[in-house]
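Sequence, please.
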């Protein structure tokens, strides 16, 4: 499963994309900011597939 398209879409225009496992559009995104470091959690509400990306520098 590759959530990279979701990450790029979310960073570009806040669109969550679709689940790479089940193609659902029911994606939840949680953002955590620790100083200048940013973590994004993506989770599908239908099949519970999930991933996170961390270490991005917030602009």
């Amino acid at each position: 499963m590759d959530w990279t398209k979701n990450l790029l879409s979310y960073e570009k225009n806040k669109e969550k994309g679709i689940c790479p496992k089940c193609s659902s559009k029911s994606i939840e995104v949680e953002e955590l900011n620790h100083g200048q470091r940013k973590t994004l959690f993506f989770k599908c509400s239908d099949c519970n597939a999930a991933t996170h990306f961390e270490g991005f520098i917030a602009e």
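Residues 5 and 17 are 7 Å apart (CA to CA).
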